[in-house]
Every structure is written in C-alpha cells, then in structure tokens.
Amino acid sequence: MACKNPLLQKVYETGFALDEIALYLDTHPADKQAMEYYQYIQKANQDAVSAYEQSYGPLLINQVNSNTWTWANSPWPWEGGM
Amino acid sequence: MWRYEKRLQYPVNISQTNPKLAQFIISQYGGPDGESAASMRYLSQRYAMPYDKGKAILTDIGTEELAHWEIIAAIVHQLTRNLTPQEIEESGFGPYYIDHTTGIWPQAAGGIPFNACEFQSKGDPITDLFEDLAAEQKARTTYDNILRMVKDHDVCDPIRFLREREIVHFQRFGEALRDVQDHLDSRNFYAFNPAFDPGQKPCGCKKNQ
C-alpha cells in the first residue's frame, strides 16, 4: 500500500531497498554488483530522507535541524495518516 | 522503525572472567526488573499515551533500554569467555552452562525465564507512568545489590553508568507524569482515563430525569 505523502513514500521505498540489499550483502560481501546497488540506493535514501525532513521534521533523534525541539511533535508513526 | 548503531552506549572491556558474577548480572538481562522488561514496557505503553511529551519519552527511554540490554549482554559475555569445565563447576555456573553453554539467554539470577508478566501495559497513562517510576527504582535497587557483589573496576564502571541512567529516567518519567496530570482534573486525577474516555467519567450511568 502506498502512503499518502509522496516524500515519505520515497523514504519507505528507498529505506526498504536499503534493508534488503544490506541483508544480501551480509551473506554476499564480495558481490560487486550488489555493492554498486547499495551505493546507488544509499544516496537515493539520503536524498529522500533530507527532502522529507525539510518539510516534516526529523526522522531520527540526531537530525533535529531547527532551534526548537520538533522531535516530540505529532503525528507519531503508529497513529496512521502518515 | 529502528536502525542499529554499531557501538555500545557505554564501553565494556572486562579482562578478568567471573562466571559467578555473570549469573548475578544476567538478572538485568531477563529478570523481573531487567532491561528487556523495561524496553518492552515503555515501547508497549506508547500506544495508549495521548500526549506528545509522554509519547516521546516512552519512545526514547524504551529505545535506550534496548541499548542497556545490549550492555548487560556484553558484560555477561565477557565474564564467561574461555571458561574451563573446572571453572564452570567451581563457580556454580554449571546449571546455566548445561542449558545454554555460554550463550546469552534472558533469565533471572535464580534461573526463572523472562516473562512478559514482569511488566504491565494497562492502557491508562497515569497507571502506566506510576509503574514506570517504580520500575526505574526497582532496577536501581538491583544495580545497588549487584554493585555490593562486584570488586572488579572493569565491571563496576558500566554497572554504575546503568545505575545512573535509572535515576535520570525516574526524573524524566516524573516530569512526564506531571505533564499528563496538567491535562487532567486536579481534584481527581483518576476521574477518567484519558486514553479511553477523554473528558468524561467512565461510568455509563445516566441521571434520572
């Protein structure tokens, strides 16, 4: 199911691709093609996270990039609508 | 969603093995006031917390407890490295060794397996936060009990760090409780459960017309 926010959808997609290729690389560390895909998706994920965070606040507690504490702001992920 | 950071929250470097001490300390891995119960308690209670400060503190302390769980495992692991059968027999580590070799398994010091009955998630923020405050104190008491048994600085040092964190968490949960109470009826904080019947008393009775 796609999420309602296109910027967050990109984080979901690239985040899952990163999880998947990381597991594969754990057991196939010498696979060059997989390593190249990791580097490609790592960059795509970083870009997607930055774009989302600029509009909606931090995804990680060490990424609060404002002068106020936005970490505790609603909505929280388990509440739906994200 | 979680990602693993490849380090401990506080370093553990133990040079002298001590299987007897490992058997005491494993209680904080899977015992009644241990780090696994702490993490599951706070992360499970988040869903019934109506206020942002409470949601944040339960998420962040619940996450930190997972890191403490890992520190305890690292301590037990380093205390039980390269044991000889003779050391196992003489230290009293035998019963654990028979079932788990030197693998890490969540149990209390007395051998009782980890059980979700060691924590509650009651669906009522005041009830839950009082449990959390008590849990932090019980864990601190357990660390005090452990520290009385430890002579080795390499073990004391990370245990003292964990004990200090219990005190900080107690303070933060106290502040979260105060925030919840600020949202409620100051004459009767239990007048209703803000997670279930916001703004009204739980009784379904109607006054006679």
Nutshell version of this structure?
In chain A, 57% of the residues lie in helices and 0% in strands. Chain A is mainly α and 82 residues long. In chain A, helix 1 (6-27) packs antiparallel against helix 2 (32-56).
Biggest chain pair contact, residues each? A-B, 9 and 9 residues
> What is the C-alpha radius of gyration of chain B, as a whole number of Å?
20 Å
Mean pLDDT of chain B: 95
Percent of residues in beta strands of chain B? under 5%
- What oligomeric state do these chains adopt? heterodimer
Gross morphology of chain B = elongated
The CATH architecture classification of chain B is Up-down Bundle
CATH topology of chain B: Ferritin
- End-to-end separation of chain B in angstroms reads 52 Å
Taking all residues together, what is the mean pLDDT of chain A? Answer: 95
Largest sheet of chain B: none
How many DSSP-defined strands of chain B? 0
CATH superfamily of chain B: Ferritin, core subunit, four-helix bundle
CA-CA gap between termini of chain A: 12 Å
Overall number of structural domains of chain B: 1
Number of strands of chain A: 0
Structural class computed from helices and strand pairing of chain A: mainly alpha
